[in-house]
Write a structure and sequence with these properties.
The chain is built from ten helices and no strands. With about 260 residues, it is mainly α.
């Protein structure tokens, strides 16, 4: 329980810091840390289930903090959150019939795609202007494309228990051209909605481990608040490269397990 609490703290902090929901770290941590400490191992199906609860808790905590700082766009949230949440529920139900190893491969492939998107050269990064200067409710983006991409990402996220936050971030930045700080806050809102429906799907299909999920939640909630505070004091370029590094390392480690 102590190990799970610490892992929840870690996932929650990076959820608030980077708007990733925490699962991009939580999934590898839950898969690999317990065996290293000679504790019972969890398979990918179990990890995918409990991750939805942890992500929901940390995203809820983080989005409240980011909303107070004016970094959550309601138009972005509605355009992407509703289709992603609906697709996430269906993906979570469908995951019951998918082998754990295949879910692991899907997770690895998704994180690799996210890494490649993050490494695409960008002409210029967002400046560190205040949130008051970034009118979050008037952000311009293609709503039809946003809804379509959110549906695809939501379904995949529902299957693997990661809610697709690590894909939403580069998609919002590079494809939809949404500013970095608004992307971080708004992505957490999308993740919150998707994680809720995905968790319902995992529970309905009998895949949830309640004790493990509870320990992760206890650590995630306060850590996400701290992460969001640090996020607003950290240069955008540094957040960007921390995010890219985390996604890339997680992808590499999981691919090694898939292959070997």
């Amino acid at each position: 329980m102590l190990v799970l609490l610490i892992l929840g703290l870690t996932g929650g902090f990076f959820s608030g810091l980077l708007g990733l929901g925490g699962a991009i770290l939580m999934v590898p941590l839950l898969l690999y840390v317990p065996p290293l400490l000679h504790l019972p191992a969890l398979d990918m199906k179990s990890v995918a289930a409990v991750s939805t609860i942890q992500v929901f808790a940390s995203a809820t905590s983080g989005v409240i903090a980011h909303r107070k700082r004016g970094a959550v766009s309601i138009p972005v949230l509605l355009a992407m959150g509703i289709p992603a949440a609906t697709a996430g529920f269906l993906g979570a139900l469908f995951s019951k019939y998918v082998e754990a190893h295949f879910l692991l491969a899907i997770f690895a492939g998704s994180s690799t795609l996210a890494t490649l998107l993050m490494l695409i050269p960008k002409k210029e990064h967002d400046t560190d202007q205040s949130q008051e200067e970034l009118n979050v409710d008037k952000v311009q983006f293609n709503r039809v494309l946003a809804a379509l991409l959110a549906t695809i990402i939501g379904f995949i996220g529902g299957m693997i228990g990661a809610t697709g936050a690590f894909i939403f971030v580069p998609v919002c930045i590079y494809i939809l051209k949404i500013p970095m700080r608004i992307t971080i806050g708004s992505t957490l809102g999308i993740v919150l909605m998707t994680a809720f429906t995905s968790a319902v799907g995992k529970i309905a299909s009998g895949q949830m481990l309640w004790l493990v999920a509870a320990a992760l939640v206890l650590g995630s909630v306060p850590a996400a608040q701290l992460g969001s505070r640090v996020s607003h004091r950290t240069p955008v370029k540094l957040l960007y490269w921390i995010m890219t590094l985390i996604i890339a390392l997680s992808s590499l480690k999981i691919w090694l397990d898939v292959i070997y």
